[in-house]
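User: structure tokens for this one?
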Amino acid sequence: MEEREPRTVLITGGNRGIGAEIARAFVALGDRVAVTHRGSETPEGTFGVECDVTETASVDKAFTTVERELGPVGVLVSNAGMTADGLLIRMKEEQFLRVLDTNLAGAWRCSKRAVPQMLRQRGGRIILISSVAGLLGSAGQTNYASSKAGLVGLARSLTREYGARNIAANVVAPGLIETDMTAGLSEAHLAEQRAQIPLGRTATADEVSGAVTWLASDAAAYVAGAVIPVDGGLGMGH
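Assistant:
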């Protein structure tokens, strides 16, 4: 484990699934960890704060609370997201825009709020949690795949704007991960999905958190604007 001063880490949607595992990983590293939620319990050792990433005022209030309690945010992990699947010809415009507002615009709002403090601290890390769907596309998920693809452009644009100020933004793109969400899928569906993965298995959430904590570490100090797939090879070439 690298020796360094504890940082304030904020993880949006860090109360369950991949976000909760990322939160636990940063807690284990000795960081001060805040997670946003919408009215549920948060992982042990974390500071929970309610936040709706689709509302700028809510994002600002959450950051202000975290800054007061834990100090300025040095690492932002934008993980909050949602799905509202449907084929294009049946998808309502509201359905499309709602997913983009949460997954993409929510990450933009949080990044916009985080960057000024990172500039004052002379550095910071922004890690956006995308998906293999954003690289490959996904039938029935034009909204979700578009939002997750947009995170790549967001991270790379942030890096071009603020990389010289020691603020690096990167993307982690998970594939099929063992979470409460996938636990609800049928074994037949999971088998079909695994058959497309070169490594032949699903991943655990801690395999995603390992990539995230590495991107936030000194070992990744020269990694910027990158897309790190954690997908067992499913999205190779993208």
